Amino acid sequence: MSDKTRLLELDVFRGIAAFYVVCFHYASYYGDHLNLGAPTLSGLITGIYGIQLFFMISGFVIFMTLEKTKKPMDFIVSRFSRLFPGYWAAVLLAFALIRIADFTGQEVSLRRAIANLSMIQNWVGVENIDGVYWTLSIELAFYFAMFILFVTKKLKYIEILGLGWLILMVLYAKIGFHAPRFMDIDNLLRYGNLFFAGVIFYNLKTKGETWYRHACLGLCLLVQYMVKIGIHHHNFLDPALGTFVVFMFFISFYFFITGKLSFIAIKPLAFLGTISYSLYLIHASISGPVMEYLYARHASTYLVFITPLFCSLLVATVITFGIEKPAMNYMRSAYKKWRLVMDNKNAEK
């Protein structure tokens, strides 16, 4: 997607979501590992729901991408080049910090680190070397499901299929049944309503408003409350609170698709959105050793929070512009050249 057609509000949403998750993790780490017994800052407790916003953005963006995709390999290369260079850098950084700093006391074998490079370690029962990676396998599962609909030419039925998935989510939460580990079906049955909501918002923006699409959004909110699932290990979070936060995300998305949020596309927030993927991936790895170092030296609470945040922003910027974007551009450029050669050969036959 070119910069001229890029939806900058979505970049800002990404940046805000990543920053909110970072703040939550820093507050949690401070209370759970450093200042034991200290209450997590109440204003940051909802920061974990930044993950919910990420899933909604993915639903919007992936459906938009597939509707503009001509060949299956175009989508594969697009997603691979977007996700893996930055992720590989984050995995190697996390592995190095664990080995060198040993701040968590955990041991990570080289074999486990290599398995993490696949991004599907959750599917095969291998533990993440950084807890934040748990969301990536869910993203991949969603990509795969949408890709299947694309190659089978069933994307046009997405609104009906999504409704069926919402029903399945409720049955899974209320009745319970065994879901296969493959493709992280378990988690898609916990968070699928958010991806579906993103798809519906895209259709509202591009195809117009209908009572059915608004009803689907209402059902997505209802399912959010009915499944009564928090975020990953944070199941202590109040379902009503989670539903309210997601409702506010829905309101923000509605303002976005109706053109009422263009004012948020300012350079600082857009920049934060640009580095959001790397920031999300590396912030937990960096925060531990930095926060522990400062806390052991009796630094002020503000310094314990601000310093790792600055370090994370700096490292995320380096990875984004030094690894992620150059690698992505190289992969996509090489693919385009290869595709051009293949198309020319086919034309000559």
Characteristics of this structure?
349 residues; mainly alpha; 0% strand; globular; disordered N terminus
Q: What is the element layout, followed by pairings?
A:
Blueprint: H1 8-34, H2 50-67, H3 72-101, H4 110-116, H5 134-151, H6 158-174, H7 185-207, H8 211-226, H9 239-257, H10 267-274, H11 276-296, H12 301-348
Please give the alpha-carbon distance between the first and last residues: 31 Å
SS-based structural class? mainly alpha
Oligomer: single chain
The portion of residues forming beta strands comes to under 5%
Question: How many H/I helical runs?
Answer: 12
- The amount of helix comes to over 70%
Arithmetic mean of pLDDT:
88
Sheet with most strands = none
H/E series, N to C? Answer: HHHHHHHHHHHH
Low-confidence stretches: 1-5, 230-236
Radius of gyration computed on alpha carbons: 21 Å
Given the C-alpha coordinates, what overall shape results?
Answer: globular
Number of strands: 0
